[in-house]
Automatic annotation (TrEMBL):
NAD as UniProt keyword: no
Domain of life: Bacteria
UniProt-listed Gene3D superfamilies: Glycosidases
Enzyme category, top tier: hydrolase
Protein name (record): Glycoside hydrolase family 1 protein
Keyword Hydrolase attributed: yes
Known EC number: 3.2.1.-
Pfam family, one: Glyco_hydro_1
Keywords: Glycosidase, Hydrolase
């Protein structure tokens, strides 16, 4: 007989966003510039200046989340809003905004989760220090983080440091770490990654020592990789990617040291990254209360396409292959709820630390006719299948899962500043180059999700 699939009473259901994709208000109340604020718009993307103006509309947005029966909202505290140049004076007006939004969440029974860095390096530190290439930036980030933790630890019980920390171990690092100059070498990638891990270790050690009741997790972008065929070289390539991009981080978060296979590769290839005496001791202070991740899709690797000598961190730049067993989104992302279950189950089995999917969703092209709710059946199917798969991981495989947060469930511009790639169950009435009225309009999926969460997800 099938056991009960009743969800834990304290399970977190919620939404997840970053500052630059949501807040707007890029130049008011003393905010400093981040690298994103100076990225120009293109014909098909907007700039980052207005986003969905949540800075001014947070009360309305939180009302929507409350009506959806959500009990968690993951926001980011923007470094350049709180410390405009990254390492100088504190901007009290910036902190005051986060006071307002956090208090407004708590008033509605919504637990905040705070992320401390989501790609938007203060421009001043990008220019003077080349972002996380410099240990000065690490110290400045640790200072900022401690300040924010001290300010909010009485109200915010869940924290993460770096959004999708494993992206700092791929060549995406050069877009998200404030790196403005250099040859984008493998050694630079390893240096920046190591610096961000040192920052994470110091921040998590501080939080645990100072606020024992507060939790902090490491986070990765989970795009698990399948071998394109049963050919041993495809299987080996997939193993290497999964080890470098997932296990290396999760092992560090849980056990306080890098993965053996990765360190062997570093020694064998003499990767000359900035590694100093005492760094191991800092890393060893790491301890994670939960393992967080984003999950949208799985990928497939064909080893024949990877040039000899490529570092495993870069394999996916060459070896990606289509997976004929999956349907795809409008942007070609493979829809794979079973992969979601496999990832959750495997992650929990390895470390027996609670796992937490804090981003999931589907980007779709949608046009509102000005009257009727958008019919987004594809989104309903996507979330239904992923929630069911997560429940399979919990109730069939025994994984401990803390919650499920969707990404951008009130529409926000995508990571390329493209509002036409929408993840929301609530439509925001703007296009890339026309802010219109920014009205929030529930889609069909809003009513569906509300009815699911009303029953704590028990019926899926
Ligand atoms: C995650 C990022 O990788 O995916 C977000 O944390 C991003 O910033 C989200 O928006 C969805 O990706 P995209 O490219 O569709 O916006």
């Amino acid at each position: 007989m099938e056991g009960s699939r009743k969800m834990p009473k304290d399970f977190f259901w919620g939404n997840s966003v970053s500052s630059m994709q949501t807040e707007g208000a890029w130049n008011i109340d003393g905010k400093g510039l981040s690298v994103y604020d100076v990225r120009p718009a293109t014909a098909t993307t907007s700039d980052w200046h207005d986003a969905i103006d949540e800075y001014h509309r947070y009360d309305e947005d939180l009302d929507w989340l409350q009506r959806l029966h959500m009990n968690m909202y993951r926001i980011q505290v923007s470094w350049s809003r709180v410390i405009p140049d990254g390492d100088g004076e504190v901007n009290q007006a910036g902190l005051a905004f986060y006071d307002r939004i956090v208090d407004a969440m708590l008033k509605r029974g919504i637990q905040p989760m705070i992320c401390l860095y989501h790609f938007d390096m203060p421009l001043a530190l990008a220019k003077s220090e080349n972002g996380f290439m410099s240990r000065h930036t690490v110290a400045a980030f640790v200072r900022f983080s401690k300040l924010v933790i001290d300010h909010f630890a009485d109200r915010v019980k869940y924290w993460i440091t770096f959004n999708e920390h494993n992206l700092y171990f791929t060549d995406e690092v050069f877009n998200i770490s404030g790196y403005l100059t250099g040859d984008k070498t493998t050694a630079d990638m390893y240096t920046i990654f190591h610096h961000t891990m040192l920052a994470h270790a110091q921040i998590s050690a501080y939080l645990h020592a100072t606020y024992p009741a507060v939790q902090i997790g490491g986070m990765v972008a989970a795009t698990p990789v399948y071998p394109a065929t049963a050919k041993p070289n495809d299987v080996l390539a997939a193993q290497q990617i999964n080890q470098f991009l997932y296990q290396n981080l999760n092992e560090a978060f849980v056990e306080g040291h890098y993965d053996h296979q990765v360190m062997t590769y570093v020694a064998e290839h003499q990767i000359d990254y900035d590694h100093q005496t005492g760094d191991e001791a800092i890393l060893s202070q790491m301890h994670t209360d939960f393992l967080a991740f984003s999950y949208y899709q799985t990928l497939t690797i064909n080893a024949d396409l990877i040039p000899a000598g490529t570092v495993p961190n870069d394999y996916l730049n060459f070896g990606g292959a289509a997976n004929r067993f999956l349907s795809t989104t409008d942007w070609g992302w493979g829809i794979d709820p079973t992969g979601f279950r496999t990832f959750i189950t495997d992650l929990y089995n390895r470390y027996q630390v609670p796992v937490f999917p804090i981003e999931n969703g589907i980007g779709c092209r949608e046009v509102w006719d000005g009257k009727n709710p958008i019919t987004d059946d594809q989104r309903i199917a996507y979330h239904a299948e992923h929630i069911k798969a997560m429940k399979d991981a919990m109730f069939i495989d025994g994984a401990k899962v803390l919650g499920y947060l969707g990404w951008g469930l009130i529409d926000i511009p995508s990571s390329h500043a493209d509002i036409e790639k929408r993840y929301g169950v609530i439509y925001v009435n703007r296009s890339n180059h026309d802010l219109k009225d920014l009205q929030r309009v529930p889609k069909k999926s809003y009513y569906w999700l509300k009815s699911v969460l009303e029953k704590n997800g028990d019926e899926l």
